[in-house]
From TrEMBL:
Keyword Ribonucleoprotein: no
Superkingdom, taxonomy of origin: Eukaryota
Protein name: Uncharacterized protein
Keywords, in A-Z order: Repeat, WD repeat
Any one GO cellular component localisation term in the record: transferase complex
InterPro entries: WD40/YVTN_repeat-like_dom_sf, WD40_repeat_dom_sf, WD40_rpt
Start-end of each WD repeat: 11-52
Organism this protein belongs to: Rhizopogon vinicolor AM-OR11-026
Length: 74
């Protein structure tokens, strides 16, 4: 870890800082919540966003979880 090398890829798409990240139980999806009141779902293999940002929060998203069966984001 002292080499300074990146361990993965950058996920680009939020317009503000990311406050929380969760990985689906099967490892195929990454979900991130930002200070810009949006949630994004990403393909873990490609790093590409899946669909448009999920909007409607009245404040920044400070924490995020994925259900054990991978069907719900909370």
């Amino acid at each position: 870890m002292e080499t300074g090398e990146a361990l993965g890829m950058s996920l680009r798409g939020h317009t503000s800082c990311v406050n929380s990240v969760a990985i689906s139980p099967d490892g195929t999806r990454i979900v991130s919540g930002s200070a810009a009141r949006t949630i994004r779902v990403w393909d873990a293999d490609t790093g590409k966003p899946l669909g448009a940002p999920l909007q409607g929060h009245t404040d920044g998203v400070s924490s995020i979880t994925i259900s054990l069966d991978g069907t719900c984001i909370g």
